[in-house]
Amino acid sequence: MPSSTSSAITLNINGEKHTLPVDHRTTLLDALRERLDLTGTKKGCDQGQCGACTVLLDGRRAVSCLQLAVAAEGREITTIEGVADGDELHPVQQAFLDLDGYQCGYCTPGQICSALGVIKEHAAGWPSAATDDVRPEAGPPPLTADEIRERMSGNLCRCGAYVSIVQAVARAAEVEAEGARTGTEAAV
Predict the structure, then answer these.
(1) pTM of this prediction?
(2) Which of 51, 73, 92, 153 has the fewest CB atoms within 10 Å, measured from its CB?
(3) Which whole number is the average pLDDT over 86-110?
């Protein structure tokens, strides 16, 4: 007897559970946009190349166009709609706004979700291809413009707002680090 090609799944998105029937081939991106009307996550290339569909899965960056919805069941999914705290913008969102880290805005949700992941990865001491000293005892490298550009390289901006995006990520990382020191860290 052939197995079914669809099932009901429960996705935990932005702290809320959503149960829906999906074809097993449905991507997380299509489930978010087409089934749950969470259209902040954008469909760009639909091939994992542009980063417009970046979301956080258990706090780590993921391109949702390559993630099957059924494989995301049981994981904590954060989309751009879940980043702010009510009417208060997350420091990353505020930095993008203050420093014009967007132009048309299409890539901005993916850029912001990726920036959230970048800041956590850097704070945890994860090296990048731009990191000079990758020894664990060296600690996190300085979050220079080169480090930010390398870490954000999976997110494309067709408008070319890269200079402002790098500045926004740097400012948000400073705010996050200051919050961690004072115990007022913004959590996502």
Answers:
(1) 0.92
(2) 153
(3) 96
